[in-house]
Amino acid sequence: MIPIVTPEEMGAIDRAAPEPVEVLVDRAGREVARTALDMLGGTYGRVVNVLAGGGNNGADGRVAANYLQRRGVKVRVFDAKERPSVVPRADLFIDAAFGTGFKGEWTAPEVGDAMVLAVDIPSGVLALTGEAGPGVLPADRTVTFQALKPGLLFGAGRNLAGEVEVVDIGLDVSSADQHLVERTDAASWWPARASDAHKWKGAVRIIAGSPGMLGAGRLCAAAAARAGAGLVALSSPGMDPNARSEIIQRRIASFDFTDEVMSDIDRFGALVIGPGLGREEFTIPSVRQTVAEVPVPVVVDGDGLFASAWSGDGAGPLLSARELPTVLTPHDGEFAVLSGASPGADRVAAARGLASDFDCTVLLKGPTTVVAAPMGEILVVDHGDERLATAGSGDVLAGMIGMALAAGAPPERAAAAAAWIHAEAARLGPEVGLLAGDLVERLPQAVAGLW
Q: What is the pTM of this model?
């Protein structure tokens, strides 16, 4: 995992460092110069412009300029306080105007066709949220120090930062409670079936689908099976799910189905409830009762989230009363239904607050996915892309999380690993026209590719 720290946390880490600021600036400047030389591909005849501000970020840029000059690169340094609108032609532009403490508006100079290297974060991007005005210069690469900043992963900053490299300058970030999930993390967290496993070990029960939305249940069930579950049972209240033949299909009533679900739930490792379930008033009470009473870990997705929030007291009393792991998987609209407000720009704070209030693990979907544990730990997944913004993609993810929970994975790791593998399955698919069913069929390859 790669640590992520907020600007406030980074300031405290800087102040706690045993080394003088000058030493840290020198280390940072050398790393910027190293990356600049890599981007230039050589030194002969190369020209670099550096825009340096008045703080440590600007100092890093000036140190980098000195190192580059020693290597024979022609370097021009411009003062960010003068806010130049245009700089002369160069091979590389180093953006060291403002760092993680930036507030306000910024318009970068025109740099022509020069490559752009940002120091710590592109100037003008808010380091906490990734928000940015129209004047921010997109970077080809960003060198950031010791830990990622949220603004490099969220909002406009996610795309403005280009390729991000985290470099070690000797700061202690062991106190970080936010981390970016990598392939090795997903591999270590994803449960593998034991050599002596049988089909009921880690079985998944799914309540999903409704008239016009039966595909949601089918996708969820198929994803749980393809992700590694030995047995998956699917029910669509009042309907025949018509799922693939490997899925056990059980009829249950369209209302008052809790007793039917509870009759053998002890044979299953987890329940997934809600994908495509519909919002009929006669279904909602059974959804709520099932979530409240079921004695296994639960993934509440889609219309299950709506049902959870249906009463006048909201979802809090229902969900916080559960004693076994519960994973909620809202997109922004469902988050607003649960909490009464949209997540806003600070998505980490939003997910963390909901997880704490409901004593649940929250997976907040988005271009960058946030997984928040009830005690405050944050896991971030930025492996996905726009191909996942397709109907049924969330149903697939819910089934995957259910499989990992049923196999015994801790809820926050089950959710984060599933999100990473879900994104990897999309990367294995076509650039255009990826369907949720394509994700399901690529899950075995995505899982196998972890190791």
A: 0.94
